[in-house]
Write a structure and sequence with these properties.
It contains 3 helices and no strands. It is an all-alpha fold. It has 2 domains: about 45 residues, no CATH class; about 35 residues. The protein starts with a helix and ends in a 9-residue tail after the last helix.
Length: about 80
Amino acid sequence: MYLLILGVILMLMKYLEVGFVADLSWWWVLTPFALAVVWWAWADATGYTKRREMDKMDKKKQGRIDKQRENLGMKTKRRSR
């Protein structure tokens, strides 16, 4: 996401001819977009994004379990991670 934001900012600066970016080649200005594509391809191929999503879901699930145990007056069992 940060690479996309950087790419949009650089592209606008180049188009509006603001600052040092006006003198840069378009190849340098569009490089963050290419890096974002490479990052997404790597993240999807290695399962990085799926693991992060599953970790978020596990934390939410454990939070709900802990809350229900607390409401029932039971001791909460914390998972060690």
